[in-house]
Every structure is written in structure tokens, then in C-alpha cells.
């Protein structure tokens, strides 16, 4: 019985047969996250939140961007970045530029220092492009929610679903109950 078409497309994001199979097996890829983000952003239409594509972190964190690109992204109240660590585990970063705060949300309750270091590189590039000076790291705060303050996965494969739920909670302005 054929349940799904060979390919699915939403907002210009295409899922092929292999991606559909991964989805049905509970494994979310960059494109699955991006389709979810496109749908949720269409529903809530938040102008204060920018969500970068799921592949952005691994593909573009080290590439040069124009000053205008940095300005557009960093003028938002909240910048959300879904990150797939080594194609094995999803986490969500929330950068709050006006508050100079980075929130690291891991559905397992862990922390990957490498991800944080790469985000700091991005912020350093931004600050340098905007001000021709170095990032004052002491002004920025890293927040890692306690394990009791956010929903955590209880299996080894639902991290992508939890990241989607974190995104939805933030966009819909439902509190995540951070313990800071």
C-alpha cells in the first residue's frame, strides 16, 4: 500500500523518498526541521523572532556574510538556531542580542562546548563587522536550563521532535520555565 507520494514539498523545501522514510522512522533531518519551522512561522508570523535554517550552523557559520545580513539577523529580539551535532543529536540555541544572552537547550540536558564556541565565533564576526571592535565576552551570558526546567526526551531518538517543541513554545510565547 502506497501511503505517501514519492516527494513532498512545502514552502520550497522538498522531502524525497529517503527523507520521508527517515521521518516515518522517527529520525528528523535538517529539511524536516525546516518544514516544521516554515509551517509554525506561517501560523504565528512573529516579527521579533528569526529562525535560521537547520543546516545553517554546519554550513555557514564560518562563511563570510555581508554587513546587511548580520544586521537583519541580529536586530531581532530572538534568534533561534536548530543545531544537529555530528548528524546525531539536535539542540536549540536561542540568541537574545538585546539581552546579550545565549540559551542552550538540549533535550538530553547536556552541553556541547564545541557548539557554544562556534556560536561565539559568529557573534565575534558580527560585533567586528558592526563596530570594528572585539566582542566583549564578559557582557554575554550563557544560560543552560536546568534539567527540571524544560521537557527532556526519555529515549534516544526524539531530540528533533523536542527541538521543534521548544521552537513552538518560544514562537507562541509559551513559557519554557527557565531556572536562571
From TrEMBL:
Q: Name one GO molecular function term.
A: deSUMOylase activity
Q: Name one GO biological process term.
A: protein desumoylation
Cross-referenced InterPro entries, in alphabetical order?
Papain-like_cys_pep_sf, Peptidase_C48_C
Q: Which SUPFAM superfamilies match?
A: Cysteine proteinases (SSF54001)
Keywords, alphabetical: Hydrolase, Protease, Thiol protease
Q: Which Pfam families match?
A: Peptidase_C48 (PF02902)
Ubiquitin-like protease family profile domain boundaries: 8-170
Top-rank taxon, per record: Eukaryota
| Family (UniProt) | Belongs to the peptidase C48 family.
The protein depicted here goes by the name: Ubiquitin-like protease family profile domain-containing protein
A single GO cellular-component term on record: nucleus
Amino acid at each position: 500500500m502506497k501511503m505517501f507520494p514519492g516527494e513532498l514539498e512545502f514552502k520550497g523545501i522538498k522531502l524525497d523518498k529517503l527523507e520521508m522514510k527517515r521521518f516515518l522512522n522517527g529520525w528528523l533531518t535538517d529539511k524536516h526541521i525546516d518544514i516544521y519551522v516554515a509551517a509554525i512561522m506561517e501560523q504565528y508570523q512573529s516579527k521579533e523572532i528569526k529562525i535560521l535554517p537547520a543546516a545553517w550552523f554546519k554550513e555557514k557559520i564560518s562563511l563570510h556574510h555581508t554587513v546587511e545580513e548580520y544586521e537583519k539577523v541580529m536586530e531581532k529580539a530572538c534568534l533561534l538556531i536548530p543545531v544537529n551535532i555530528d548528524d546525531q543529536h539536535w539542540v536549540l540555541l536561542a540568541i537574545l542580542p538585546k539581552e546579550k544572552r545565549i540559551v542552550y537547550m538540549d533535550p538530553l540536558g547536556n552541553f556541547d562546548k564545541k557548539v557554544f564556541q562556534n556560536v561565539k565565533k559568529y557573534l565575534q564576526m558580527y560585533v567586528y563587522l558592526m563596530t570594528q571592535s572585539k566582542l566583549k565576552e564578559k557582557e554575554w551570558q550563557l544560560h543552560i536550563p536546568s534539567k527540571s526546567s524544560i521537557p527532556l526526551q526519555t529515549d534516544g531518538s526524539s531530540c528533533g521532535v523536542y527541538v521543534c517543541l521548544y521552537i513552538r513554545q518560544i514562537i507562541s510565547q509559551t513559557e519554557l520555565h527557565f531556572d536562571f
